[in-house]
Amino acid sequence: MLAEKPRKNKEEKLQILKEASQNGVTLTLEKYGIYPATYYTWKQKYEDMGEDGFRHGMTPDQLKEIKRLQKENQQLKELLITKELESKLKDELIKKKYAPVKRRS
Q1: In this structure, are residues 78 and 70 in contact, taking their beta carbons and an 8 Å threshold?
Q2: Are 34 and 5 in contact (CB under 8 A)?
Q3: For 5-59, what is each residue's pLDDT tens digit?
Q4: Using an 8 Å Cβ cutoff, are 25 and 36 in contact?
Q5: What does the H/E/C string look like for 16-61?
Q6: Which among 1, 61, 72, 85 has the fewest CB atoms less than 10 Å away?
Q7: In sequence order, what DSSP letters do the residues of 59-95 get, joined into one string?
Q8: How many Å apart are CA 59 and CA 101, to the nearest integer?
Q9: 10 in helix, strand or coil?
Q10: How far apart are CA 18 and CA 46, in angstroms?
Q11: What average pLDDT does this structure show over 48-77?
């Protein structure tokens, strides 16, 4: 019976990807005892989703949805800021237009 190898955490995976790009994939995989399929799965996840790709259970579709919602949220915030600024400017114009005129005596 083969002993189960401990899982690599996000930082270890990132270090292995970096090392493989610098020193070569074959040497790095031999050094850490990692199968090529595992390495290329990590590499694909990193290319598709960045560091979030190493979060347990996160699928590319879920990450895309999260990013879409974050973008929509940012657009809504910017729209709200714009509307609030327009409202303040209108209020100031109205105050100036209808401000009582001071007469000199």
Answers
A1: no
A2: no
A3: 678 888 999 999 999 999 999 999 999 999 999 999 999 888 887 887 777 676 7
A4: yes
A5: HHHHHHHHCHHHHHHHHCCCHHHHHHHHHHHHHHHHHHHCCCCCHH
A6: 1
A7: -HHHHHHHHHHHHHHHHHHHHHHHHHHHHHHHHHHHH
A8: 65
A9: helix
A10: 11
A11: 84
CA-to-CA dists, residue 57 to 54, 64, 80, 102, angstroms: 8, 14, 34, 69
Q: 11: helix, coil or strand? A: helix
Phi and psi torsions of 13, nearest 5°:
-65, -45
Instruction: Give pTM, 2 decimals.
Output: 0.52
The owner of tokens 């007469």 is 103
Helix, coil or strand: residue 9? coil
Contact 29, 35 (CB under 8 A): yes
Residue type, 51: E
Tokens (6 digits) for 92: 């100031």
